[in-house]
Amino acid sequence: MAKILISPGRYVQGAGEMKKLGTYAAMYGKKALVLITESGYKRSSAVIEEGFQNAECSMTVDYFQGECSKKEISRICALMEEKGCDLMIGIGGGKTLDTAKAAAYYRKVPVIICPTIASTDAPCSALSVIYSEEGVFEEYLFLPANPNMVLMDTEIIAKSPVRLTVAGMGDALATYFEARACRDSGAATCAGGKVTGAAMALAELCFDTLMEEGVKAKLALEAGACTEAVERIIEANTLLSGIGFESGGLAGAHAIHNGFTVLEECHSMYHGEKVAFGTITQLVLENVPADELEDIIDFCIELGLPVTLKELGITDPTPEKIMAVAEAACAPTDTIHNMPFEVTPESVAAAILAADRYGRYFLGE
Q1: Residue 340, class by beta-carbon neighbours within 10 Å (0-12 exposed, 13-18 middle, 19+ buried)?
Q2: 11-157, CATH topology level
Q3: Catalytic residue, candidates 98, 121, 257, 334
Q4: Is 267 a catalytic residue?
Q5: Cα–Cα distance, 197 to 141 (Å, whole number)
Q6: Which residues partner with 149 through β-bridges?
Q7: DSSP 53-75
Q8: pLDDT in the model for residue 140
Q9: Mean predicted confidence (pLDDT) in 112-127
Q10: How confident is the model at residue 165 (pLDDT cuts 50, 70, 90)?
Q11: Which of 85, 188, 240, 344 gives 20 to 30 Å between its CA and that of 219?
Q12: CA Rg, the chain, in Å?
């Protein structure tokens, strides 16, 4: 099996870059469909419209309906055909961006991804996560190419709720540990080949950046400041984690996240918050040294990421609920089977319960 690394065609990060959106769009098409939530457009309409003034590309706006589902993707595809759009632009959070990528794929048009938050590593990837209309994970849609461009306006992102950027750090936290597992098992990554040294280096840089800059960035954001630490965390959450997870591979943490989507009480939690707990659970499965586990739990506690089932919203963790999560995580097609040892629903359930107990111990409960 070959080693493969993939990445977006262009990555641009800086304050005020959204004001140049029309200029960037003209590099890829003549008429863009901008997919954004209604509330997002109310907040950002002025800067988006300014970005298209005097640009050699026009735009039409449509509002995202809330889930990256097959129904929503089909609706967007039909609208693009009706409006004659030859370019897709997704602006917003992970599910909006995944829907934009999927619709662009089916319509065979370029796509520009413009995150307004740094809460997941979805923006850079050639992947859309498909959910049911009720929000339950269904499948990964692997795309033949990464986005043509990813545009990160850090001025906008720094104004988003701090919890979202912290959730992005929770998502990025899994990157190195999942890539390490895939390297050790020889598993194929989302890029379709084995892990490259470059992908491992980016995954490790992602982890080091989180450890060095994460708490500083959170405190700066709470003060309303976009510092160099914030800039570095936005890059770690988006570019480093994006390339790192895709070309480094997914393993236990994201599969366990997928398992938690079967519990309705977890639906209010962000993707990265569930992934953070999934990372701790993966480390328990691996039986990593105590100091490594303690470092990760302490990091999550300092950031306010969940380290217990209660913090995930599960106040009554019955054996039936935990086993339902474990069985979903161990679905035949999920990435937990990229771990370098056999994993069963029983071992995952045990790891979830142990991770919860460790979290309560370090919280002093």
Answers
A1: middle
A2: Rossmann fold (3.40.50)
A3: 257
A4: no
A5: 26
A6: 112
A7: TT-S-EEEEEE--S---HHHHHH
A8: 85
A9: 92
A10: very high
A11: 240
A12: 20
Report helix, strand or coil for 189: coil
Cα–Cα distance, 31 to 16 (Å, whole number): 22
What is the distance between the alpha carbons of residues 220 and 227, in angstroms, rounded to a whole number? 7
| 149: three-class secondary structure by DSSP | strand
Query: Which CATH superfamily groups domain 162-362?
Result: Dehydroquinate synthase-like - alpha domain (1.20.1090.10)
Can you say whether residue 247 is alpha, beta or left, with left for phi > 0 and alpha for psi between -120 and 50 degrees?
alpha
Check 98, 121, 153, 271 and give the catalytic one: 271
Q: HSE (CB half, 13 Å, CA atoms) of 229?
A: 19
- Tell me the pLDDT of the chain averaged across its residues: 96
Cα separation, 87 vs 132, whole angstroms:
26
SS3 97: helix
Which residues are 153's β-sheet partners? 14
pTM equals 0.90
Q: What is the mean pLDDT of residues 105-114?
A: 98
Q: Measured in whole angstroms, how far is the alpha carbon of residue 198 from the centre of its chain?
A: 20
- Is residue 171 part of the annotated active site? The answer reads yes
Over residues 307-344, the pLDDT tens digits come to: 999 999 999 999 999 999 999 999 999 999 999 999 99
- Is 337 annotated in the active site? no
**Where in the chain do CATH 3.40.50.1970 domains reside?**
11-157
Range(s) of the chain covered by CATH 1.20.1090.10: 162-362
Q: At what angle do helices 162-185 and 197-222 cross, to 10 degrees?
A: 160
Q: Which two tokens stand for residue 216?
A: 């500083």
